Amino acid sequence: MSKTGQTGPLPRAGLTGPDSLRRGPCRPRFTNGRHPSQPRLILWRAGEALGCVAGAPARPVQATWRGRCPAGPPRSEPNRTEPELRPTPEDVLGFLLCGAPECLVSGGRTEDEEEERRKKRKMARKSREQEKLRLKKIPEEKVPEGPARDGDEEHGEAIDDGALRDQQGSSRDEEDSGRVRGEDGEVAAEESDSSEDEVPDRNTIGGVPLKWYDEEEHIGYDVSGKKIRKQAKRDKIDSFLAGADDAKSWRKIYDEYNDEEIDLTKDERRIIRRLMKGKTPHADVDPYAPYVDWFEWEDKGLPLSSAPEPKRRFTPSKWEHRKVVQYVRAIRKGWIKFEKPKEEPRFYDLWGDESTSVENEHHRLSYIPAPKPKAPGHEESVNPSVEYVPTQEEVNSYQLMDEEDRPKLIPKRYESLRSVPAYEHGMREVFERCLDLYLCPRTRKKRINIDPESLKPKLPSRKDLKPYPSTCYLEYKGHTGSVLSISIEVTGQWIASGSTDGTVRVWEIETGRCLRIWEIGEAVQHVAWNPLPDLPVLAVSAGQDVLMLNTGLGDAEQQLRIKELLHVEEPSTLDDAGNNISLVRWVQHGKLDAIRLVHLKAVSAVEWHSKGDYFITLVPTLLIHRLSKKLTFNPLKRLHGLPVSSVFHPSRRILFVATKKNVRVYDLSKETPTFVKKLETGVREVSSVAIHPAGDNVIVGSKDGKLCWFDMDLSSQPYKTLRTHAKDITNVAFHRSYPLFASSSDDCTAYVFHGMVYSDLNQNPLIVPLEILRGHKDSNGRGVMDCKFHPRQPWLFTAGADSVVKLFCH
Fold first, then answer.
1. Closest to 251 measured CA to CA, from 162, 154, 151
2. Of 209-223, 291-305, 361-375, 730-744, which one has max mean pLDDT?
3. For residue 756, what is the domain's CATH number?
4. Most Cβ neighbours (<10 Å): which of 17, 43, 448, 506?
């Protein structure tokens, strides 16, 4: 305890809640000039206040007046010690932001201010008493009529709740800051500390949204810093019953800001009624007052501005002079020409041709005038010449004529106009004339007459593109199931076929004799001859196995070499680097003179490299095998999609891999294959791919019947897309020496095209459809399963689902 004051514990506070707003150091909590009944002071040091904000435990602080606040000591007692006021978090924040290091004062006035304030209150009370006495002396019938009387306070009028809520705020402000005039004319503040004039505690949160207090138990803080508790909310039924019992409930409005009901005064209700009627709030205001011009314009020669006139307003402009000279020169030289006024003709030809008029030439249209009626002649005359009047015999002959050839008017002679009868066909002719005017076109539209044949591209005749296969010459019968794949030996003497009946057959092409049959035991998916003529080995894929069969063709020396090549001493599971290969096992077949490559999954296709040592097998991944060393590689471990077909480049170390959506090109010249290009097919699903013998063009078949031609040097998009087949395309093939390519489909047809590739890069390939080959029968919805060209002749072999292999020749 000090000499001049008492100490008290400063509460621990934190900056929480929506009321953490900045306030000044001398008025942290009080608004509208109102203070509590007795002024209170809180003085503390900045360090202790900062500890309070940070949440540290507060220490006792001495509450005394130190004389450093600009508001001065409270009342006339400078050393009066007041009870402690616990600061709120926003008070501390206002103290810290405003930078008052010594004190935080809430209220306080000097002696002179208090004395003046007492005088003004006394004058205000005196003036109010006089006003009450004056109003009592005036009789009730002499009260002037305003915009609304007391009788208007009936229940029948409905007042907009929103309008009342907006108005009550302004009326309360007027009550808080209301002023009356005293006897001496001076303005006195209507403010008092007595219990009679006390106003209920108001919310002091300012412009903080009320939704911030939805989850709180209070709605804000009053002027003394205490929380304003929310009132218990009543349901709609209780509110309705309370309003029905209270006769003055229609005068009350709910104040969300202070969470209370407020009774509207008479003045406020009058103002609201005037506003709802679209009038001004006060009756003594004239909204249509005459306009008074503050400036006298008459007899005022001086300008509004006192600045001197610039010199440029009195001197001719050099720029305008140059512009005028340019225009004059352009007009003299004829660069600028003026349009002459049009002279309207005084006369016009009534029966002239309107198609040559000046107006139509101006529109630059081939104008067709409306058809004009035929000018009357001697036959239509009332009194024609004798030679125009037909005799009775001629009139009888008219009746025997057809109606179209019969004359519409037969001339007659009348003595006067009074004896001329009405024309029988007058109305009909007028109607036909109106139809002619209505249906006649006013402008001639130039239509381009194009021969449809001229729109077709100029293609060479098919006779000039011979030879190409067109007729079925030979059939190879013997299979009992669908023939899924065929392959022609490189010399063109033998053809191999694989079927779903589990057999592989080798045929002689020219005679159709079946040379040899192998019983595989499973459906054969693909067969492929080795491209080397000295190595007649046949690769067969069936299920999860790939068989390298010795066909027995060739001389004894070749057979000895083949037997050495197709011999495996023991299953090889290691490569040159010592890595374990578990994808494929190379084993010797027990019954057949062949090598068996056992895969983990089913093999769908087998393709040879042009050198005859490497070949590809398609499983869910792509594997490359080397026959001479019995090795298997998996160079493309990451494929963007499942491989559907794959083929080697005929001359370079490039691999084409076709997935369901596109064709990807890889370079195999390095140790790890590198991606070169992706061909965007734009089809639903790719089914097959073939490479031109030159290696620069690719054709792709799809399962939606489209065939795409790609020019590798041109673009990655199709050069041509041919919509030929109605069903899935099963295979596409190029001829090795002739400019031919073909496609087979499940619609039991095979298309033959002429595809010429020029050595000149500036000339595009020529594609001409030649022939549609038919002959296969539909079996379970499948048609032609495979097609291959003869290596030397322009012949095409097709394998069908009807277990027949056909040869088409020219």
1. 154
2. 730-744
3. 2.130.10.10
4. 506
